[in-house]
């Protein structure tokens, strides 16, 4: 069974990222459109991000105990988030490739069948090439389009 055989739903995606470095907090928000599907009990969210570097296709695969974030295009990234574990990943752009290390503090997914909307929340500490760690909170809210 391929992903093309799975029941896909068009979704509106709101991606909000909060980054805390010491006493400073930065917040980023992106609104885009994509698809939601299940393969077995695994949730897949796919959407396109666009910025000055170009387009990046993002795929999120969420299982009960872990989530994988994959980006391909202007930015290439692979990061596994597993609750209370440190996991390695990488981030690649036109400037080169960076090693990532995340320690996941929270993975929470909720789905409201009546409203046809869901939310995936990841809280994690990110170390990038030995830099000062940042505290990240990524919230991916999505709603099925009629």
Give the strand order of the largest sheet, numbering strands 1, 2, ... along the chain: 1-2-3-4-5-6-7-8-9-10
User: Can you count the helices?
Assistant: 0
* Shape descriptor: globular
| Amount of helix | under 10%
CA radius of gyration is 15 Å
**Alpha carbon gap, first and last residue:** 26 Å
Uncertain spans, ≥5 residues at pLDDT below 50?
A: none
Tell me how many strands there are: 10
Mean pLDDT: 91
Strand proportion, as a percent range, falls in: over 45%
Main pleated sheet? 10 strands, antiparallel, barrel
Structural class: mainly beta
Order of helices and strands: EEEEEEEEEE
Explain what this protein looks like in three dimensions:
0% of the residues lie in helices and 77% in strands. The chain contains no helices and ten strands. A ten-stranded antiparallel β-barrel has the order 1-2-3-4-5-6-7-8-9-10. β2 and β3 form a beta hairpin.
What would you say about this model in short?
The chain has 146 residues and is mostly beta strands.
Can you lay out the helices and strands and say which pair or pack?
Blueprint: E1 8-21, E2 24-39, E3 42-51, E4 54-62, E5 66-73, E6 76-82, E7 86-93, E8 96-112, E9 117-128, E10 134-144
